[in-house]
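Fill in residues.
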């Protein structure tokens, strides 16, 4: 028993692993392990029985957590957009734009995956939508099955890291940081990861062109009367939009100064990107609208189609992310606005009816309940684990690693990578992150950087063969038997499970490369954050002393207690009374105990200089 009591924390953690290996649901495994070891710890005297009395307050705290309201809002927004046909329109239009080049369909899937990630934030919706829409087209035109499967699964998982990602909300909650800061930190890494996917497809198009053929001419549907593709006007509109966006980005401080009515000298990079992108898109929308209303004939069918299809998702991105980055709305408020905008867009497009709305609400309720039950179980487990000094055991275990911060980050990311084979990001966020966060904070690691780093690593949990959820989602919609294509009337072979697994491996490696890049260059994350305001206590103390000395009277005089100076009237020692009685005793010195000095102003100065400068 003494051995169990002395090693209670590691035994408790091992007990949780046993519960999970037995196949119990994660939420119930966490709760059962927490309660079982809680009552056992009380019996063994590891901690007092009052520990369990804290549990109801912890659970009430979960219910009162406003930050977690963003989870159902963003989930509902993503499901409504997925059912409103936005993904289908985007894939069709962007596929036509990139189709004539080798690898164009794969590039279209990546770009649409990034747009869906920035609007939906739900991996399942993105993977299933692109699997249903783009996979048959890629198979129709002889794309390599491994690449087609891998690019769809990987592009769908961009919703894991590109805001408004659900995992970033949970990560911010567990690390005690702002969701807005977590979104700002993940914005650039998310699009860098998308860039690495694009680079991989481009390399295949150069060195393995047969894997990524171009669309044949008969498959390009947006043609002009003269037979041209209409790319000239599209390039002109894109150039005008880009010029406006670049101009706005370069003069963003002037725009903020005009908007806020006070001088602004610096604007965060993410704010520049979102605001400039929306400004350029607005100009394209104005041009396309004028062309359609007045029938000017300036734009081709392709250019007009691209503009009007891209406006809704980009508008939604600004409504959600733009308001969050600009500080107009909190993430919860941004999620609520996004859900309402998705409802309006769905009904406006006449793609959404009450049946689809009920399905979206039911799926949102299930996911929110799933998150809530895992949080309740994780809170129960963490309460008992902390009472058994589990965090100290984890801290001693990890701080003793060689290599300091870098060694800690390498070991932690290797551990997360292998745990992701068996646990998804919800479970990792609630089980592992609360144990690692305090240790990282004590080692001086920026928790926003740490959270984004773990989020990129956890993204591999969707891609791990054979347990990746994105692979399961794709398997559910990929053809399992031969079928006859409805356009070409050719017999198309099925996509095997092994082909899906092999296609995922290169993208898992790309994600690991991104993890290494973030470890080597933390400024990619921290550079997008608002700069902390430095406060020098010594300067504040000097200013206070100047104000005290300039005030006059009271403590502002050299003699703060108003005693007359030597040589002034009343400064002489009291004389003995003329009747011969003893002289009155000298007035006692002012009590120095209240301030630690005869001169309170000097005492204040000394205490302020003794305090370290806070930043």
């Amino acid at each position: 028993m003494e051995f169990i009591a002395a090693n209670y924390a590691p035994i408790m953690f091992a007990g949780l692993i046993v519960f999970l290996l037995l196949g119990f649901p994660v939420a119930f495994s966490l709760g059962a392990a927490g309660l079982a070891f809680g009552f056992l710890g009380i019996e063994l005297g590891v901690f007092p029985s009052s520990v369990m009395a804290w549990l109801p307050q912890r659970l009430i705290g979960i219910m009162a957590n406003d930050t977690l309201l963003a989870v159902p809002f963003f989930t509902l927004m993503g499901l409504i957009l997925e059912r409103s046909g936005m993904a289908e329109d985007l894939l069709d239009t962007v596929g036509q734009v990139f189709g004539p080049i080798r690898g164009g369909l794969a590039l279209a899937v990546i770009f649409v995956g990034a747009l869906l990630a920035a609007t939906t934030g739900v991996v399942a919706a993105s993977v299933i939508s692109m699997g249903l829409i783009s996979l048959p087209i890629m198979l129709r035109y002889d794309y390599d099955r491994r690449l087609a499967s891998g690019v769809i699964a990987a592009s769908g998982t961009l919703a894991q890291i590109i805001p408004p990602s659900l995992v970033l909300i949970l990560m911010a909650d567990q690390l005690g940081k702002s969701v807005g800061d977590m979104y700002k930190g993940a914005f650039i890494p998310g699009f860098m990861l998308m860039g690495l996917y694009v680079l991989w497809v481009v390399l295949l198009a150069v060195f393995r062109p047969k894997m990524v053929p171009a669309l044949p001419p008969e498959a390009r549907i947006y043609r002009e009367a003269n037979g041209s593709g209409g790319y000239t006007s599209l390039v002109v509109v894109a150039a005008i939009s880009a010029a406006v966006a670049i101009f706005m980005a370069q003069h963003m401080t002037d725009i903020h100064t005009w908007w806020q009515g006070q001088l602004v000298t610096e604007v965060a990079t993410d704010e520049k990107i979102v605001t400039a992108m929306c400004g350029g898109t607005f100009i394209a929308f104005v041009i396309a609208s004028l062309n359609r209303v007045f029938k000017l004939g300036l734009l081709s069918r392709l250019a007009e189609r691209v503009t009007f299809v891209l406006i809704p998702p980009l508008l939604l991105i600004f409504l959600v992310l733009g308001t969050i980055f600009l500080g107009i709305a909190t993430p919860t408020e941004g999620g609520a606005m996004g859900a309402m905008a998705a409802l309006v867009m769905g009904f406006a497009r006449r793609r959404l009816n009450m049946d689809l709305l009920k399905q979206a609400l039911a799926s949102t309720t299930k996911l929110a309940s799933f998150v809530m039950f895992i949080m309740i179980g994780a809170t129960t487990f963490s309460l008992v684990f902390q009472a058994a000094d589990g965090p100290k055991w984890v801290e001693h275990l990890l701080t003793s690693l060689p290599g300091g911060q870098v060694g800690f980050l390498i070991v932690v990311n290797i551990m997360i990578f292998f745990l992701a084979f068996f646990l998804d990001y919800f479970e990792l966020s609630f089980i592992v992150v609360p144990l690692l966060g305090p240790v990282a904070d004590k080692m001086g690691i920026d928790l926003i950087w740490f959270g984004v780093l773990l989020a990129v690593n956890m993204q591999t949990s969707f891609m791990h063969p054979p347990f990746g959820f994105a692979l399961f989602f794709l398997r559910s919609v990929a053809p399992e038997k031969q079928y006859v294509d409805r356009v070409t009337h050719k017999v198309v072979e099925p996509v095997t499970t092994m082909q899906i697994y092999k296609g995922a491996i290169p993208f898992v490696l790309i994600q690991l490369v991104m993890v290494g890049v973030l470890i080597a260059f933390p400024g990619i994350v921290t550079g997008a954050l608002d700069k902390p305001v430095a406060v020098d206590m010594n300067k504040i103390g000097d200013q206070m002393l100047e104000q005290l000395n300039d005030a006059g009277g009271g403590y502002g005089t050299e003699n703060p207690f108003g005693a007359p100076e030597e040589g002034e009237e009343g400064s002489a020692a009291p004389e003995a009374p003329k009747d011969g009685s003893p002289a009155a005793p000298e007035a006692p010195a002012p009590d120095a105990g209240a301030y630690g000095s005869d001169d309170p102003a000097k005492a204040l100065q000394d205490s302020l200089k003794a305090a370290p400068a806070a930043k």
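Residues 230 and 549 are 76 Å apart (CA to CA).
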